[in-house]
Automatic annotation (TrEMBL):
Needed cofactors: Mg(2+); Mn(2+)
Record-listed 5-amino-1-(5-phospho-beta-D-ribosyl)imidazole-4-carboxamide binding positions: H27, S94, N255
HAMAP family, per the entry: IMP_biosynth_PurP (MF_01163)
PANTHER family noted in UniProt: 5-FORMAMINOIMIDAZOLE-4-CARBOXAMIDE-1-(BETA)-D-RIBOFURANOSYL 5'-MONOPHOSPHATE SYNTHETASE (PTHR38147:SF2), 5-FORMAMINOIMIDAZOLE-4-CARBOXAMIDE-1-(BETA)-D-RIBOFURANOSYL 5'-MONOPHOSPHATE SYNTHETASE-RELATED (PTHR38147)
Family: Belongs to the phosphohexose mutase family.
Record lineage: Archaea, Methanobacteriati, Methanobacteriota, Stenosarchaea group, Methanomicrobia
Natural source organism: Methanosalsum zhilinae (strain DSM 4017 / NBRC 107636 / OCM 62 / WeN5) (Methanohalophilus zhilinae)
The protein's name in its UniProt record: 5-formaminoimidazole-4-carboxamide-1-(beta)-D-ribofuranosyl 5'-monophosphate synthetase
Reactions performed catalytically: 5-amino-1-(5-phospho-beta-D-ribosyl)imidazole-4-carboxamide + formate + ATP = 5-formamido-1-(5-phospho-D-ribosyl)imidazole-4-carboxamide + ADP + phosphate
Record flagged with keyword Nucleus: no
Recorded metabolic or biological pathway in which this protein acts: Purine metabolism; IMP biosynthesis via de novo pathway; 5-formamido-1-(5-phospho-D-ribosyl)imidazole-4-carboxamide from 5-amino-1-(5-phospho-D-ribosyl)imidazole-4-carboxamide (formate route): step 1/1
EC number(s) stated in the UniProt entry for this protein: 6.3.4.23
Keyword Metal-binding found: yes
Broad EC category: ligase
Residues involved in ATP binding: E226
Amino acid sequence: MIEKKQILDILQSYDQKKISIATVCSHSSLQIFDGARKEGFRTIGICVGEPPRFYDAFPKAKPDEYIIVDSYQQIPDIADKLREKNAIIVPHGSFVEYMGSDKFTDLAVPTFGNRNVLNWESDRDKEREWLEGAGIHMPRKIEDPRDINGPVMVKYHGARGGRGFFVAKSYEEFERYIEPHQKYTIQEFIIGTRYYLHYFYSPLRNEGYSLSEGTLEMLSMDRRVESNADEIFRLGSPKELTEAGIQPTYVVTGNVPLIARESLLPLVFSIGEKVVEQSIKMFGGMIGPFCLETVFTDKLEIKVFEISARIVAGTNIYMSGSPYSDLIEENLSTGRRIAQEIKLGQRLNQLDRIIS
């Protein structure tokens, strides 16, 4: 991983009046570009091949300029060009997945957030160490697939947008669907309602829901629409589907909005607070947006099964604000909130606290 001192030296060389926001044209880039423009930043879209034509249909979210690469693995080759344009990278799930975590953590361009979080988020064993260390309730982990004696969720490591996840109810089913040579984890399947909770941690602000350092914000919530898993049972019972050789898949194809009953908000903030405080202790803090992927049970418990330590695509529902973010500031998206934090870092001369 590139040393933070190298990044801060690059940042020191920037013209602070000409900072631009750059990201890969995918995932949540429309929201990131829109939010950056609303806060007065110039925007740069990184794309493979020709710029995507659909950006022309959304002029308020179209980047001011594009930098074209032949493949995402070539993004390090344009580092000089990004630095010349005083660029700060805003990462998202597709950015990291397409480029590869090693190349991303070595990228010699100032990046919003703490790159150290990637080591803890992308490895499911380390992720569990982090969350359980924070006192978070997680689904039970099954170490040996031969011990499967009820529904479990099998997940591969890294950000895959749900691709390859599957449910197994026995060792035989596990053996049937597992991909050889892939690193995986097995969790008990928790019955309940899935809530994806979109937080924002600011080490710079001191007004609001205060932590040991900085503040925690709840910006929005969503639920994911997962390819055929949400519709497949129209075709028959689980037994009939199995007999027909039809297997549910969990590739995320979209998102729908949610709000939680107000009595659950203290618990929602409590688990977010614990995760942030533990991140500060373990690796210097998780900065900016993050998402706790949870199940709310009928006992009104919240089980956390995963964390995404950056902006998630579920926030795209709320480009003009959510029922929660509107109570902070009207028309506040997560993309705009990122731009505001960078702007605040400039004003306070504390960009070094939120850039790595």
